[in-house]
């Protein structure tokens, strides 16, 4: 229950972890509301002058929008707080000795909920990776001989149970973080409009005006809009799937076949590099098409649109990243080739992603600074001497923004960061039996990724615009989907190990694998009932806060009725 904020009753409102009254996201929204809310309420237009330029500020026109249209204000963006930024650099980005430990509360206070949730997820995921990484390292270092056929199923069962528990315990941690940050919104994905987002109600208002109090017609209209939106989403998903099957699948199979034919390892590395660049281009095209399709869907809010984009683009990446590996694993049934493909994919993709992710922003920033300084030197007529920027705002303006590579209208840079983690998770999980050492590679990469992403946000990019989101959204469903796929693919790999002749006979070993697959799928869908998503202390805290808010609301209502405007402190003393 939300209470109307009044300064006299400030003690009734909970503080943020850093002691402030409002979160960074709330403060930013207030700033935008104030500066964008300046409007000409006078009876006539106002003449404004800037650098010998004169223009009219019309009645009812917003000032900042006018300044932006006249190119006097180029862009509005949040600035870095130098004191907090330097502190985070020391305690987070450059603090390598703690590996996965991060000051999550400070990250939340500085960047907002969405980015803090991402780093909390990445840190927990990396810590949990230590177990399968150690297990995989043991399998790689020691030769178990004839026991290999027994050890691999044990490893497979272990990592599937690990992934199931990680998914469920992350939900518990997510709830605990929200309770610690005093965020009292539901975390269900289908209640996105209650997670600090505004309900897109233009259609609802039009229907209400048109039909008035006729509830029957209003209900029919709402149902028609709801099902039309669902049909549009189904149509768009069908278009993406059809495009993948008809256009992308032949390209992926051609790459896999050429890779199998080539004998030189150097040429294979070169082919993989060219392939990764090509799929980036294809995905950019697919992402633009997806954004246009989403505009015709009846999504409730921006977060819903972003989730729809995530599902569509991940479908493209899923086909690109894994179809070639499936080709080697299930058709050629060549374990050594499969391991080489996995090593090359992990190394090339991770190195390439980190290179593009961290180097490009720095190069863009350096190039912009060079152009500005060259321009100022030409204006001064001097080719020597160091040119300083007029203000910190000018320097921050030159930095690249934290934007997504695809669908930047709906997503920010977290889209690419989550996509990288999801693709890595799928690669190491779905082919765990073929290459157990991949978990060790992923652990080392993620330890580096945490600090590299932190350094990127604090030093190379502008301060991101805060987004309010209480979960990782669609990505959690994608991770759970990858766990289910991992059960199927690893069982297929184990069947291949037992069935060397390729006759696919249902022998005791193969039957055991089939039973194991069904049992693991049952555990996957039943474990959520065993481990609750919300810790008991969080639930108790939430109930307590709801009761307190209800009491405060009742007292506020009574004061309004009686006309007494006593402060919260006076009421507290009278109790």
Structure description:
There is one protein chain. By secondary structure, this protein is mainly α. The chain has a two-stranded antiparallel ribbon with strand order 1-2. 28% of the residues are buried. It has one domain. About 3% of the residues have low confidence. It has 18 helices and two strands. A hairpin with a 2-residue loop joins strand 1 and strand 2.
Helix content: 55-70%
Intertermini distance: 22 Å
What is the count of β-strands?
2
Structural class: mainly alpha
Report the major sheet. 2 strands, antiparallel
- State the shape: globular
How much of the sequence is in beta strands? under 5%
- Strand order, largest beta sheet: 1-2
Q: Which regions contain 5 or more consecutive residues with pLDDT less than 50?
A: 186-205
Tell me the count of domains. 1
| Global Rg | 28 Å
Organism: Prunus persica
InterPro entries: Anoctamin, Anoctamin_TM
Protein name: Anoctamin transmembrane domain-containing protein
Domain Anoctamin transmembrane: 107-542
List keywords for this structure.
575 residues; mainly alpha; two-stranded antiparallel sheet; 18 helices; globular
């Amino acid at each position: 229950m939300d209470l109307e904020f009044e300064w006299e009753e400030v003690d009734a409102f909970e503080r943020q972890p850093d002691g402030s009254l409002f979160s960074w996201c709330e403060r930013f929204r207030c700033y935008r509301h104030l500066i964008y809310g300046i409007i000409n309420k006078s009876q006539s237009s106002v003449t404004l002058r800037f650098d010998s330029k004169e223009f009219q500020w019309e009645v009812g026109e917003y000032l900042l929008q006018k300044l932006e249209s006249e190119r006097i204000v180029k862009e509005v963006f949040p600035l870095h707080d130098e004191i907090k930024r330097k502190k985070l650099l020391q305690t987070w980005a450059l603090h390598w000795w703690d590996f996965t430990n991060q000051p999550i509360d400070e990250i939340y206070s500085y960047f907002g909920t969405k980015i803090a949730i991402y780093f909390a997820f990445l840190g927990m995921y990396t810590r949990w990776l230590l177990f399968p990484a150690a297990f995989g390292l043991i399998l790689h270092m020691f030769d178990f001989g004839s026991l290999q056929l027994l050890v691999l199923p044990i490893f497979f069962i272990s990592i599937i149970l690990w992934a199931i528990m990680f998914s469920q315990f992350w939900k518990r941690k997510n709830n605990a973080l929200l309770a610690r940050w005093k965020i009292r919104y539901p975390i269900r994905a289908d209640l996105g409009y209650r997670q600090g987002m505004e309900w897109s109600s233009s259609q609802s208002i039009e229907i209400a005006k048109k039909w008035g109090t006729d509830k029957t017609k209003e209900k029919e209209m709402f149902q028609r809009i709801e099902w039309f939106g669902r049909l549009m989403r189904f149509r768009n998903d069908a278009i993406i799937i059809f495009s993948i099957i008809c256009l992308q699948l032949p390209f992926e199979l051609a790459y896999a076949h050429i890779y199998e034919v080539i004998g030189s390892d150097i040429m294979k590395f070169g082919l993989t590099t060219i392939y990764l660049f090509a799929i980036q281009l294809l995905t950019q095209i697919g992402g633009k098409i997806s954004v246009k399709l989403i505009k015709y869907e009846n999504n409730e809010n921006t977060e819903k649109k972003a989730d729809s984009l995530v599902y569509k683009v991940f479908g493209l990446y899923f086909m690109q990243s894994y179809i070639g590996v499936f080709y080697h694993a299930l058709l050629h049934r060549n374990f050594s080739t499969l391991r080489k493909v996995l090593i090359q994919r992990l190394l090339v993709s991770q190195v390439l992603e980190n290179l593009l992710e961290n180097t490009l922003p720095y190069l863009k920033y350096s190039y912009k600074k060079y152009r500005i300084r060259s321009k100022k030197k030409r204006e001064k007529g001097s080719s020597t001497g160091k040119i300083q920027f007029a203000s910190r705002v000018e320097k921050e303006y030159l930095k690249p923004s934290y934007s997504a590579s695809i669908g930047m209208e709906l997503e920010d840079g977290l889209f690419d960061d989550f996509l990288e983690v999801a693709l890595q998770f799928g690669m190491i999980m779905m082919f765990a039996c073929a290459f157990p050492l991949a978990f060790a590679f992923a652990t080392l990469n993620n330890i580096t990724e945490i600090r590299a992403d932190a350094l990127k946000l604090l030093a190379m990019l502008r301060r991101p615009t805060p987004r309010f989101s209480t979960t990782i959204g669609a990505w959690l469903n994608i991770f759970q989907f990858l766990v289910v796929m991992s059960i199927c693919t690893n069982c297929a790999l184990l069947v291949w190990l037992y069935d060397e002749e390729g006759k696919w006979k249902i022998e005791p070993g193969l039957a055991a694998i089939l039973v194991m697959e069904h049992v693991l799928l049952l555990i996957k869908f039943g474990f959520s009932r065993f481990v609750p998503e919300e810790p008991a202390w969080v639930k108790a805290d939430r109930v307590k806060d709801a009761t307190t808010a209800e009491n405060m609301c009742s007292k506020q209502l009574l004061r309004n009725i009686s006309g007494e405007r006593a402060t919260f402190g006076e009421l507290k003393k009278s109790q």
